[in-house]
Each structure stands twice: as structure tokens, then as C-alpha cells.
Amino acid sequence: xxxxxxxxxxxxxxxxxxxxxxxxxxxxxxxxxxxxxxxxxxxxxxxxxxxxxxxxxxxxxxxxxxxxxxxxxxxxxxxxxxxxxxxxxxxxxxxxxxxxxxxxxxxxxxxxxxxxxxxxxxxxxxxxxxxxxxxxxxxxxxxxxxxxxxxxxxxxxxxxxxxxxxxxxxxxxxxxxxxxxxxxxxxxxxxxxxxxxxxxxxxxxxxxxxxxxxxxxxxxxxxxxxxxxxxxxxxxxxxxxxxxxxxxxxxxxxxxxx
Length: 258
Ligand SMILES: NC(=O)c1ccc[n+]([C@@H]2O[C@H](COP(=O)([O-])OP(=O)(O)OC[C@H]3O[C@@H](n4cnc5c(N)ncnc54)[C@H](OP(=O)(O)O)[C@@H]3O)[C@@H](O)[C@H]2O)c1
Fold this sequence. Notes:
This protein has 258 residues and is of the alpha/beta class.
């Protein structure tokens, strides 16, 4: 019997594709999103193909709604063994047009929303002595991307949050996976005005990697393969070289000035 997975951000993009892929493998799914129509549509089509699905329409920054959703989903499908926290937002933010409201909103969803999702499932996981928490980070969290300032800050915070949680939860049987996808063709990427076509993978490809992460519980899950190389280069690039790259190459990559 497969573990029950709670998947946030299930209505669109990577979350939606992963829900479909997990349902095909027989995982019972608790699907969460704030976008009711597409979420219910997805749930109906998954149920028609035989999947066990429960849904909750909520904002991941709403802790009481998350607690109620977890209780309802566990009543319907059994204990949640895996959290796949996919809900996230990202938008163009560039200097000097800094908008603190965007920063707040981005941190609220990408960091606090993931933390609250974890808090909602963690007591049950600790009581059972097992569980798996999966957070979706980004390359933009490992180095600051000057066209996504708020997003970069939120993903850097998420990476550190998951890393800092890891040892304390490992000894309680709870594993943490930090995911770093390359560019994935979703609405989030549509909003970024790149000058040249950017190589993107399809959400279904991202979903295959995420299903493997659910099954294998790695510490890190970086995909596609060339992203592993790109991330390693970015992480270990000397600061002066990174600053130069972003200052000179960055503005040429986008239809915006910064
Ligand atoms: N696409 C990429 O290239 C890429 C790369 C690296 C990391 N990621 C990360 O992957 C995750 C999924 O992104 P995606 O590209 O699939 O984006 P997406 O297509 O925009 O899907 C995100 C989903 O999350 C939902 N959501 C957003 N805020 C929410 C909230 N407060 N409460 C509940 N649901 C919420 C959205 O609902 P609404 O329709 O209401 O907004 C949407 O259904 C994000 O964490 C993103 O940062 C994406």
C-alpha cells in the first residue's frame, strides 16, 4: 500500500503534473491549492481514473485551514506520510524598483507557507516515527538573481530552513528533500521576459523526478542533469565572477533594465 501524499500547489504547473504522475502510481493524494476550479477539475479526472483523492481549497499561509485540511484528508485517506510542498509564487523584481509588498507576499507563500504546511503534518509524522518532507527550492535560492530579488531571497530562506530542520527531524524518523528544478515550462516562467528562448523542461518531466524523490527520499533532488552542473558552477563560482556575470550578462538576458 502506497503512502498518502499531501501535495500543495496542486492545481497548476509542477504540482498538477506530479499529482497526475503519483496518482498513476497508486498514491492516495491530498491535494491543496487556493485555485478551486482547476483543483476540483483535476481531482474529478483523477477519481474517474481510479485514484484516491481528497481536496482542500486554501491558502498555505492559513494555519487553521491547513490543520483542518490535514485532519479531513487523514480521515479520508489515512496518515499523511509525505508532504510535497509545491505551492509557490515568483515574479519579476528588479532594482531600483523595490516593492516590499512583493517581498512580504513572496516570503509569506514560499517560506511561511511551506513552514506552516510542515507544521500541519509534523505532529502525526513524529508520533508515527516516520515521514518525508519535500520542499521546492530553486537555483535562484543558491545565488541572488537580480531580476527575481524577492524570489531569490525566499528560496534562499527556504533552503536554509530545510537544512536547519534536517538533523532534528532525522532522529525522529522524518526525512527532508530539497528540490532544485531547472527551468520548467509553467505560468511562473511565462512571466519572465527572457530575450532569447530559455531551455525549459516540461512539468511532466519535473514530475518524474519528483515521483522518484518520493520513492527514494534523497537529501537533494536537482534536475535535469545539466542543471546539476549549472548549479555546481553557480554555487562555487567566486563572488567577483558571479557579480560580473550578473552585472553584464544578466541585463542582456532579459527585456528589462536593471
Ligand atoms: N517553473 C520553474 O521553472 C520553477 C523552477 C524552480 C522552482 N520552482 C518552484 O516550483 C513550485 C511550483 O511552481 P510552478 O512553476 O509549478 O508554478 P505555478 O504553475 O504557478 O503553480 C503554482 C501553484 O501553487 C499555487 N499557489 C500559489 N500560492 C499559493 C498559496 N498561497 N496557497 C495555495 N496555493 C498556492 C498556485 O495557485 P494560483 O493559481 O492561485 O497562483 C498554483 O496552482 C514553486 O515553489 C516554484 O517556486 C519552479
